[in-house]
Every structure is written in structure tokens, then in C-alpha cells.
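Q: Two folds, back to back.
A: First:
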Amino acid sequence: MMLRRGFILFLPRLVGLLVVACCSMSIVYMLACTPKGDNQQLALPRVHSPAVKEGYEAILQEREEQHRNYMISLKKQIVQLKAELQGRTEQLKSVQNQYPDSLDIQLDHHKPEKAQANLLAFLRSQVDKAEVHSGVKLSTEYAAVPFESFTLQKVYQLETGLTRHPEEKPVRKDKRDELIEVIELAVGSLNKPDGVSKAKPRVYTASDFIEGIYRTEKNKGTLYELTFKGDAKHQFKKIVLFRPFGPVMKVKNENVNMADTLINVIVPLAKRANKFRQFMQNFREMGIQQDGRIHLTVVYFGKEQINEVKSILENTSKSANFKNFTFIQLNEEFSRGKGLDVGARFWKGNNVVLFFCDVDIYFTAEFLNSCRLNTQPGKKVFYPVLFSQYNPSIIYGHHDSIPSLEQQLTIKKETGFWRDFGFGMTCQYRSDFINIGGFDLDIKGWGGEDVHLYRKYLHSNLMVIRTPVRGLFHLWHEKQCLDELTPEQYKMCMQSKAMNEASHGQLGMLVFKQEIEMYLHRQKLSNKKT
């Protein structure tokens, strides 16, 4: 009785095992015997063929090899799928552990679609929390996260790392791979058909990439803004990407037409006619001849050298057929903030991009485009970090002669430094400058007014674009710190003066110049004896 009852209980299991075995054998038989397509199916030799045995063996061997390769391929795919599934599972677990309350991500293996949707929701929330679509209010000028800028060949960086190079080819593989991936993804996005236009689409390549900027908010992700050549002159394509510590997500793909965007360059000036002459040479070549969408406003303090300055301006106007300039004279003590404020408010035309500039600045036509692309009324203001030139007589003291100005303007640690403590050169729309309240006109003389304006923008909801640029240079000149300055201004002036002369190593060579000369003299005597 016991044996009969045990057999009855075991019978369903036995039937199940037999069914599974039969199914398995059927699947194996189908895999082994399913013929190829018409084009690939091999013809069996006829029975009466003289090479029947050899033919059958060759065909069976060939099919056996085909099936073996097919099984190997299936096994590889299974392994890859398992690894991908494991990776996704670990990723979801990590997100669930880190953000269990905000997104309520549940690792339900029976509902993978829901888990994936929750993960995507989290990644998109990272975009919303980051400073991508709008600026955030910041407490101090040190709270802004600066951008790094890059081209296909080089990265221009404020945080120079161990190399201490202000520009470099990215030597770290992770940085190089990161930027290559972003450029390739942007090119792919540009070449993706929009489904609207019937015209043959243009094919973009990496060579159409002009420059990009990027920055990482440590707890959110990395923002990339890439500029490509457009379909016509003065037209560009701008791609905004965001990596929320996961897959890169396209944020924006827009056409940017800067053909009619005028820049009003405002220069406050007192005396310094020779420097103004040098500035106008640069302005004529880059602003008038190469760019052409530019206005110049000179705010002059006092009367000394005014006729010489006017003559330089009029000669440039006649020789270049340039009429887009304004000359304003103020009979009062020089104040940089007052001059820029007066120049900005004097403009009576449509909303215009203001570029606050100094007479000892050299800019390129590429920088003027950067000025336009990184400003947007009610959205963004541009605070470029310029490259400040060291004293050429120190840098090139061992040369036979000092190179021309254009040859001196190279971005290397031996020739200058990123002036990341300066906020005087800035681009913004006039409407934003007026709405923010302009400059503090109580500040007199040198320094302080630019930091005050910068802090106003940081305290607003405007996004401040802070990045080193390759087309904006501060030309070296001897700096004089006057007794009339306040103690704070005098200290800032002296610090700027010290940093402007030369690099740490070059100054060290000057300090130890006598010791070095004594060493060389001893070496010379030693060589004579031998």
C-alpha cells in the first residue's frame, strides 16, 4: 500500500520530467535540422554519384561546423545579456539605496519597465536640479562653478592640476575619452533627420566643431555646451548636453543666428594716447575688418591728450570707412565704473550686447563670437577669464630681440597666466545691465567696481558663464599704484602688479641672477684649465 501511494505521488513528477526531456530533444532536433534559406541551402549529392560517401561526410562536417559556430554565438549573446542585466540591476540598486524616498524606485524584477521608468525619472530630475535651464542665486563670487573650454586639439583649464599648464592636450585618458564621446554624440544629434525638412540634410562632422565649454556640478552632473559651424556665415549650431552621472542626455538643439547681433565695445580712458593707438590697430583689424558687427564707445576723462585721442579715432574712421563710434567727454576725475556706466546708458538703439573693455586689451574676432554666443537677455551674462601677459622684457630677455605682439600672444605657462581674479572684462545685454542697477558710482579710481557688479549678477537668477577664453589677452604694461587709492584698492593693485611681471620660476632666476653668473664664471675658468 505504501509503495503504491508513493508511486502515485511520483508519477506526476515522472510525467513532467518526460515532457521536459521531449521538449528539449525537439528543440535540439529543430536547431540541428532546420535548413538554411534558399540561397544558402546546400544540395545533397545523388545516391548514384561516385563520391557519395565523401560528399555526405563533407556536408555533415560543414553543417556541424555551422551549428557549432551558431551555438557559440548564442552562448556569447546570452553571456552579454546576463552581464547587461546584472549591470542594470546594480545601477538600480545603487539609485534605490541613495534616493529611496525622492523617487521611490522599486527593484521589481517582475516589472522591469517600471524600474527603468523610475531610473529615467531620476536622471531627468538631475537635469532639473542642475544649473542648466536657468541660473541660481549664489552667496559670493567664489561660489560660481567655472567652465573649462576646449577645441578638437586642446583644453583650456583654470584648474591646471599637476602639470600647471593653462592649456594642454588632454593627457588623462578619462578626460580625452569624455570629450571625444560628447563631440561624437553632438555630431550624431546634428545628423539625425528632423522629419520636417524635405531638403537634403547637411552632414556634420567633427571638423565643423568650433569650441565648447563644460563644467561639473559635483552632486548633479556635467553640463556641455558645444558650438558648430552653421549653414551660412555668422550662423551657428549650438548643442547642449548633460551627463547626470549616467548616460548623456540631449537638452537642447537650436539654430543660433548672430548675423545681426551688434556688440557695443565701451572703453573708459584718461590720457594713454599711445596705448589707445595700439588698441585701435587691434580694433580695426579684428572688430571692423574681420567681424564688422561692432560699435565703439570711448568715454574720455579730462582734457589732457584729448586732441591726440580724437585724431586717432578720426583717422581710423576715415581709413576704414567706419562710422559706428561714439565719443563722450567727462570733465572729472577718472573712474572706470563711471565711464562704463555712462557709456552703457548713453546707447539709444535697440537692446545691444555690451562688451566692457580696457585700452590694454587685445581681442580676436573669435572672441567677439564667443561674447555673442554666451550672452542671452534675461538668461545669461558672460565673464570670460582672459590670459594675462607677463613682462616681455623678462620673458624674452635672453633673446636677441623681443618678438612682435602677435607672436607674443601664445597661451603657455612661460608667457602668462589666467587672470581668474579679474572681473572687469564682461559681456552682457544692456537690458540686463540696466535691470541689475549698473555700477556702484561711489567707487572711485582703480578696482572694486567690477567685483561689485559681478556679485550683483551672482545674486540674481541670471546664469553667469565663467570660462577661460583663447581670444582675449591683457597686454603687459607697467602698473603704478597711486597714493590716492584706499588701502584695500592699493593692496589689490600691488598684488596685481606682482603677478603681472613673470612666472615664479622666472622671478626666481632674477633673484638668483648673481649666483647663476658666478657659477657660469667658475665653469668657464674650469674649462680653460682643462
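A: Second:
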Amino acid sequence: QEKKIFTVQGPYPIIRRELRARGWVERKLPSMGRQLEQHHPLHYPWLPAEEEEEQCDENPNSIHDLMSYLVRDRLPNFIWTNFLDATDHKLLQQDNVVNHYARVDAFTTKEGLCLSLQKLPWIEQADPNTFFPRCYRLGIVDEREAFIEDFHLTAARSLLKLALEEAGDRPVRTQQVPNSAKGAVESHVSHPKHSTAQPGSSLYPELVEEAMEVCKQHLGVLQHQDIDRRTPSPCRTCIDWEHFLQRYYRVAHEGAGLVLTKQQRKECQNLLRHLAEQLPQLDMEGKLNIWILKPGAESQGRGIICTTRLEEVLQLAWSCTAPSVQVGRWVVQKYVERLLTIFGTKFDIRQWFVVTDWKPLTVWFYRDCYLRFCSRPFSLCRLERARHLCNVSVQKWYKTSPDQDPRVPRDKIWSNKQFQEYLAQLGQADAWHQVLVPGMKAAILSALRSAQDQVRFRKGSFELYGADFLVGEDFQPWLLEINSCPTMSPSSAVTRRLCANVQRDTLCLVLDRKDNSTSSIGAFELIYKE
């Protein structure tokens, strides 16, 4: 009766072991362990009486099963579970500690994060475009139309970038995508018949002029010159966008050439320079107009597709069916084309943090994290999942390709310490502490503040989250998503160590620190308290 009680739901042996070591007693739920309720607590009727004591000594779980039976009618002081919805609400009392908050889908689903960050500029002086690739919910008519306009504008900017790849009046050549490697999208949607161009053939000279005119009008809108002149949206002018896109596709993806005069080259350079002052994502968006389509509430890479064609995005959003995804509940996000790779391979960062209170918002950042690598070399001309989705749950299905750099770790995982050593070899030793970590902290805090009013919080509870980041060529971190139940299943020696550490340190933070404010909290640091 003097013991504190805990309940663990899910595969968390570290949590169970750490709490037992503190003298806590586990109340096992009916679906867990042996059903001792049907037996007298002081006897194991399937054993002869003389063997009971010996069995208790030999089986370390037997004493825990017995203790669990003795506390079967007591409510747990602490609950650690996979999902809050999976917890028997009879167990939830005002004063017990639970490792989840309610209604966190406002920032832990792709759809929720997209919506919350749209509201960020109204909450604080922060621009989500500086850390979150622009994103649209395709099930919302206004946002779908905004995406179509964004796709058109990005195509026009991309054309100017392609036109500047070679100097002077010489034709600009672009890399041709092999027919056998146009990505996973082809398995989902049949391409409409596009006109084909022989590599090196020139397109109509007015194509660059049209792209420059679109960019000029867009720049005027961005600079608020439209307030007095009421400049129409560049996407609602007389340009035939379908025809423009077909010619753009030929240049960007089919190897067609462009002829650029010196005057056009100078104008393109000036336009892009001015646009860069207004568009934080101009550099990272690249020049191939690649977008990534995601089911709005799925995780572990389910249903995610990369594509370069507007018609495919719209068709896929309404025709594809992923498990448990409602029609229309898709988001489309700009793909980070200019990203940092390691040994020619794409990677992302899984970064943990804990929220211990929402009013006042209190956030703890974990100083250790890990990198996840893809199984095949990075290529913007080959859009299959093995090259572009870093999720462990996706990459476990792929073998490392023969053309992969042998320096990429076999288990596709690095610690942040290994990454820092790599940055030092690049001559960028300060990038981790001066650019990446501050950028990740700022992005996490902005995401939390944007959704703060939506979360239903419980005093005394907490939640451990896993944020996923890509790294741009300039070492700028780009937030992709935030997970409310980050996996603790080790897939490598690095994650075995780090996942165990973050669980131990989380318990130190939310339990030990309550009794002793000077107790160690491991690798956690307080980064924000309102």
C-alpha cells in the first residue's frame, strides 16, 4: 500500500525496468502478462506448494506478477502508453501523470501542422516559410487553388534558373531523365501523352519572356505594388498555363534546350535576386518543381509520393487510396531540392523534445539526436522512395544499392556526434551549434506556439515528441513533421543507446526532478518557459 503504482502499455522495457528500480509496482492491465486475477494471490495453483518459493526466486517476473495482483484495485500514479486513446479512461485521474496530452494532432499530423503554421504570423512575429517548406491541404478548395498558383509561379522561377545554367547566348542544356527512372509516381498514375522534344532542340523564344513577365508581376505583388495599381495575380493573366507547363516539362525533365540572349540573362539574374529578397524558399526550392504528396494523418512514410507534374498531384489526391486515409485529406508540400547530402546520400534528423506544461508552455530540448540515411544515392531525376524517404520503417524494406558510397553506415544511422565530426571535416565545425541547433529549437517552439490553444493539457503530465528535419545546402534546418509517439525500437547500435538514454532521462525529468530540483536530467535542457 505504500508503493507508487505505474502502468505501461506498449513495448517499453526500459521504462518498466527504470520504474521498478525506483521501487514502483506495476499494475498490469488484463491484456498484459499472466492473468493472475483468477488465482489466489498467495499461490500458483499450477505448481506444487514446495516449488512455489523456488519458482519465485528463479523467475524474476513472478514477484512482479504477484505484486501486480495485489495492486489490481489501485489507480496508477504514472501511465506510459503508446497512444492516449488506447488508455482506459477509468485509469485517468486528475492527479496521475500521463505521457500524452489530448488534441495534439494540431501539430503532430501533417494536416494539423500545415494549418497551425499558417496561423503563426498572427500569433508572433515569425515567418513559417523560413523553416517549414510551404504546404497546402488539398481537400480545402482555397488551398488547392493556392497550390496550383504556387506550382505555376515555381515553374516560372525554375525556368529562369534553368535558363541561367549556361552563360551568354549558348543554348542551355538540362539533364534528361531516363524513361526507366521517372519515379514511383508512374506506378500510380498514367501520364498523359506529353509532346516530346529531342535533347538539345530549342523551344520557342517567347517561353523565357513569358516566365520573366510572370516573375515581374509576382515581384510587384510581393513588394505591395499591387495596392494602388491592383495588379492581377500573375497566374490569372492571359498566359496559357497548360501550354506553358508542357513546354516547361520538356525543358526541366525531357532534356530540351533554351536559347537565352545576354539581355535576357541579365534580366533573369536581376529578377531572381529581387525575388530572393522576398521569398525565403527561393534557394531551397531548386529548379525542377518537385513536390511531395502526403496523406494528412498517416505516419512512417505511408502513402508518400514525390512528383513533378501538377496533373499528377491533383489526380493522386483524389484517386489514390492509402490505408485509413479519407479522400481529399492529403497535403502537398514543396520538396527541398537543394539539400545537404552525406556521401551523396539523403538523410534527415530525428530530434527529441519534451513538453512538461502548456500553461505556461515549458519545453525541454534533448541534446542528443540521430540521423537516418536512405538506401540509394540521392538523385532528383529518380524519385523512388528508397532515395527520398529517410524513415526507418520505409528503408528497412530496401537493400543498400551497389552504387551506394561504402562510407554510408550499413545500418543507415548516425549519431549527432558522428555528424558533427563530418561537419568538421567539411570545415563547418560551427554549423551544428551556430546554425542547426538554434534553427531546430526555433522551429519547434514556433510549431508549439502556433498550436498551443488547440491542445487539451493536463497539469502534471508531459509528452515526448520526435521532430524530423532536413538540412539545406546552407545547413539551414527545415522542419518536416512532429511525431507524438516517436519509436523507441532500436534499429541500430546508435538508436539502441540513444533511445534508452532519452527514456531514462525523461523519467528523471518528469519524476525525480519533482522531488529534487537539483537531480540530474541527463541530456535535456530547458529552452523555453513562458
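Q: And?
A: Residues 350 and 468 are 5 Å apart (CA to CA).
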